[in-house]
Amino acid sequence: MVERTDERRSRVVSLMGLVGEVGDLHSMMKKLMLQKANPAFRTELREEFGDLLWYLTSLASLYEIPLEEIAKANAEKAESFYTKGSVNVFDDNFPSEERLPRRFVVNFYEKPLERSLYVKVSVNDVVIGDALTDNSHEDDGYRYHDVFHLAYAAVLGWSPVCRALLKCKRKSKVKIDEVEDGARAAIIEEAFSILIFNQAEERGWYADRSSIDIGLLKTIRRMGMGLEVQACTAKQWQEAISQGYAVFLELKRNGGGDVVVDLDKQKITYRAPSAARGRRS
Question: What is the pTM assigned to this prediction?
Fold first, then answer.
């Protein structure tokens, strides 16, 4: 229909027409705000939408992109970004020793190290991974960043770093072990952590979930393309970041503590250290 009525078939004309119609719509909405009531508003609005749609369809057709295809792809993107999604279990068909534990407790404790502090992490009193410092000129608490990986494991059901620390890599399937649980996937996960952390302070440590905005979530999802984590929704990423930073701040404030990780509830929670397991010297 648009092709039959588009006499000029010009990208510039279609684009300028689209911009002009957006301006008309803006003026109409401003007038409505000032006048409060306009009986003909719905009729006029319908006409403006029609004009907008015509120019948009004209522009899309010039690039041979069907509007239906655009609408379908956009709906799928919105579904991914704004729905909570289901509990992800990426290791359901693997031996028990190759599955992430569904619930476990991780202890973080601080020790002094000359001019700085380092953190050790343990599960069932067994130290996992290396002792970590901030690796920074300032005390920014990054020594506690393993909590972010725990949040990914809990909320997303995904964390190559946690699989390595907990020794539950899926070695029974060579390709899965190489791609999903291998070094590249772990490096990408660490890149997520540092990317998000480097913006954390200016975003108020993500206390307000709106600070975990669509731009950041789009970047994260693009970085995870090709890995199983791409099945996770942006809403799940937002939840993982929010929970991870809430617990991170508690760990930093208290100099350690326990983190309860529950994959079935998609949740991590902070538990203050007892007197016997507080700040260790």
Answer: 0.78
